[in-house]
TrEMBL record:
Belongs to the adipolin/erythroferrone family. Transmembrane segments: none annotated. The gene is Erfe. This is Erythroferrone. SUPFAM superfamilies: TNF-like. It comes from Cinclus mexicanus (American dipper).
Length: 132
């Protein structure tokens, strides 16, 4: 299975739910309505930092997008500045999106850090129907 450079390797599974497909990482809305989405990703660098090389200017965007259209208005996102000296950090995104029945939402990681990242086990992704 080939995946895009922006999609990190998955070490652990996300939360299970009736609309969540763990193979694709997509939550499909059973009915149209407003859904509260939350994802918390525990992200680790896969290779140690070289001496003197920090997270300077590194930014990590985590997005929850509808129908994979992250450039449209139908997404939630957070941008973290990776100034920590740690090789493991946590990023969360929470918000509300409107989905039509059959539309899906999924999590994307936009990695400008310049080194490979892994989403660790214990990460989660959940959706709750708020109302129609």
């Amino acid at each position: 299975s080939s995946h895009s450079p922006s999609q990190p390797e998955r070490e652990g599974l996300f939360h299970r739910g009736p609309g969540l497909n763990l193979t694709s990482g997509q939550y499909t809305a059973p009915i149209a309505g407003y859904y509260a989405f939350t994802t918390t990703l525990h992200i680790a660098r896969r290779e140690p930092r070289r001496k003197g090389q920090g997270w300077r200017q590194s930014r990590l965007r985590v997005l929850i997008c509808v129908q994979s259209r992250c450039q449209h208005n139908s997404h939630l996102e957070t941008v973290s500045r990776l100034e920590s000296s740690s090789d493991l950090f946590t990023v969360s995104v929470t918000g509300t999106l409107y989905l039509q029945a059959g539309q899906y939402a999924s999590v994307f990681v936009d990695n400008t850090a310049g080194s490979p990242l892994t989403v660790r086990s214990g990460s989660d992704f959940s959706a709750v129907l708020l109302g129609v």
